[in-house]
Automatic annotation (TrEMBL), chains A, D:
It is found in: Cytoplasm. GO terms for cellular component: cytosol. Pfam families: Urm1. InterPro entries: Beta-grasp_dom_sf, Mopterin_synth/thiamin_S_b, Urm1. C-terminal thiocarboxylation occurs in 2 steps, it is first acyl-adenylated (-COAMP) via the hesA/moeB/thiF part of UBA4, then thiocarboxylated (-COSH) via the rhodanese domain of UBA4. Keywords: Cytoplasm, Isopeptide bond, tRNA processing, Ubl conjugation pathway. There is a cross-link at G105 (Glycyl lysine isopeptide (Gly-Lys) (interchain with K-? in acceptor proteins)). It comes from Saxophila tyrrhenica. This is Ubiquitin-related modifier 1.
Length: 105, 307, 307, 105
């Protein structure tokens, strides 16, 4: 068994409303998913839905097994598209931010 | 009031002297600003401060586009308007304020909402566009039109206590050229579900939050307009000019968090982008003929003229 | 226009509705703002936008202090003034703009420069002070007076392409109480050598740079005035309310760097601070009697009324 | 002999003018000072004056063996007063920023 992975996850742009109105969460997730693969961001998103999200409106966060359109995922201050997207394997103390894009002006 | 021997009038030297003595601007940069035509789409919480600082800096032509009228509920954050101008078109109200601040600027008033039919013909008159609107529908339309007309786009948004800013399509290379800056669709290929979109009216907005983002839009526009060459970086003075696809940089602001500001490295152009790639489906014809339904695309339910 | 049954008039509900629907403000916060008396020292590049957003937000009383008159070289960045008001006192010029934006605010005009003799009596009339001045001499005088009168101080500065912002003396505990926020002298015990100090006139300034800092000052003032209890943190919503000496947080901005913004952890009160410690030498008497020579202290050579 | 210490030093608020108008410098300093002690910030300030500063106006940067009044020293985004000031022993890849306070408005 791999060690649990300590992470900081943050929610902004309104997503914090889905997570007990709290922006910053220090969490620890299993080091492997159910198949024994190293935990990646796809697994983290599932884990957050199952373990951290109290709001029943899952569709405000996930759609078709990934984050919904209009949500950016930032890994250590880089867009996850630069890091391998959902396949990025999480490292201890990574900072993962979920940002809903804003449209007001 | 210009003499034939000096590139600026003595009034202009006086008015802009404090910025011209900086090497980042100088006479060169001031003349670039004077030559520049800047379009501000949306004269609300973002557009008011953006317009004020661009007018102050002496851009030659400043276009203002908005179809709304001033309401008293705007005034806590839309600081170019005034209580006595409630009911007036936002464009005319802002013009009164801006003309009083700097009458040397040529102001062009577009007192209507942007629509796909005339977007291209308006954008073609300008060098750079600021997206100061407040709905995803207009954000996609403005980005698509910026790509089609090859204009850099300074896009910002704000809601409640947070703001976001990104410079797009910069440099504005032709669609298919991966050395152009990414467009809004490169970053957000799919629009958000309609039910996830909150407006400032619904969600609320703190005045200085949207104000900061608008002022920063003016700053980024000035940086784009006065930089020495296209190859130089946008948000930094330290990046080497290498032949790498240009990545965008997203600034996110959260008034009650610490740190308040974060700078995020974003992607370069998307090879399959619907607007700026070789495989694009957004064309001048499809856009202006109305065959791209921005309203349906963004799942909008309120009338089109709210754009 | 207020009814006896509602804490705000219907006009006020309309005008401030967009910020009142946010939990961070609400009716509670709006009433705190309405009750608040805010002093802005310096109605220039920082003071203009700070005043605009504080007036917009509906602070009850807004004091403006400046002894200068409007010059055309101010207008690229001092966006509350106007070309037609060149030569007018900056305080009167800003008042015209602010009254038109929001006539519900009680504006108090102090059309003179701050001096040690009357600083305490002016500051005593307010709840919070914004330092929007442009010289170290005034920065020390304003900080000392804020400590002596127990007012939180939102201090910002800008030059060329850079800006700095810090909230000082917050919470404003009595001198000697290490649980009060640090003052300007805690951070900068010794003034800089006169020859190292550049003004905006000498060094130049980009309008949106000073504009951003001024808008952020308004934001920090609103946060201080509307927070739920003194024990809660200033710049963050995540800090636990522990009995630790309060540290300050410095925001630094650099328009052409990446990242543009940095948040720096600063110290708490200095046990030997000349102004806010048990060992202080700055007292109400020494200050107002003129025995503290701020000019000589800062090595200033130009006349005192430039403060 | 201790290994050299790679550092990023930055100058802002006008100090960059004293360092070839360049804000960010990647440098490597000796791991020990002349006395064989681990290199600290006091040593770094000396080293910068001797090796990186081209401008002759040393008094714009140093005074009485430390930085002049009005210059903040930030170590990894904290005021150096929180880190031991001049005695802070430098670690590889530390980020040290020298900021001249601004007074304009
Ligand atoms: Zn694209
Ligand atoms: Zn102190």
């Amino acid at each position: 068994m791999a060690d649990p992975i300590p992470l900081t996850v943050e929610f902004t742009g309104g997503l914090e409303m889905l997570f007990s109105d709290q922006r910053k969460h220090k969490i620890s997730i299993p080091g492997q998913d159910e198949d024994g693969s190293a935990s990646n961001v796809a697994y983290l998103i599932h884990w957050l839905c199952d373990n951290l999200m109290k709001d029943p409106r899952k569709e405000m966060f996930v759609l078709d097994d990934s984050v919904r359109p209009g949500v950016l995922v930032l890994i250590n201050d880089s867009d996850w598209e630069l890091e391998g997207e959902a396949n990025y394997e999480l490292q201890p103390n990574d900072n993962v931010v979920f940002v809903s894009t804003l449209h007001g002006g | 009031s210009q003499s034939s021997e000096w590139p600026l009038s003595s009034t202009e030297y006086q008015r802009y002297g404090r910025q011209m003595i900086m090497p980042e601007i100088g006479l060169r940069g001031q003349l670039q600003l004077k030559k520049a035509k800047v379009l501000i789409v949306g004269v609300g919480g973002l557009g008011c401060p953006a317009a004020a600082y661009l007018a102050g800096a002496g851009v030659g032509t400043l276009g203002l586009m908005d179809g709304d009228t001033v309401e008293v509920s705007n005034l806590h954050r839309q600081v170019a308007h005034a209580t006595g101008r409630v009911g007036m078109s936002k464009v005319d109200s802002a013009y009164e304020y801006l003309y009083a601040l700097n009458p040397e600027v040529n102001y062009i008033r577009h007192s209507f909402h942007l629509s796909p039919e005339h977007a291209i013909s308006v954008f073609e008159q300008y060098d750079i566009v600021l997206d100061c609107t407040d709905h995803p529908t207009s954000r996609y339309l403005i980005s698509d039109t910026s790509v089609l007309t090859s204009k850099p786009l300074v896009s910002a948004s704000a809601l409640k206590t947070e703001g976001q800013l990104i410079v797009l399509n910069d440099p504005p290379k032709p669609p298919g050229d991966l050395f152009g800056g990414p467009c809004y669709r490169c970053i957000f290929p799919k629009p958000p579900p309609a039910e996830s979109v909150l407006s400032c009216g619904e969600g609320g907005i703190l005045g200085p939050v949207v104000g900061v983002m608008g002022v920063l839009q003016a700053l980024e526009a000035i940086k784009v307009l006065t930089r020495r060459s296209e190859a130089q970086g946008r948000m930094t003075d330290a990046e080497p000019a290498t032949a790498q696809p240009v990545k965008a940089s997203l600034l996110i602001f959260s008034a009650f968090s610490s740190p308040q500001f974060r700078t995020i490295k974003m992607r370069s152009r998307r090879a399959d982008c619907a607007a700026c790639s070789a495989k694009r489906v957004v064309t001048a014809d499809s856009l202006s003929s109305g065959s791209l339904d921005y309203i349906a695309f963004c799942g909008r339910t309120t009338p089109v003229d709210v754009l």
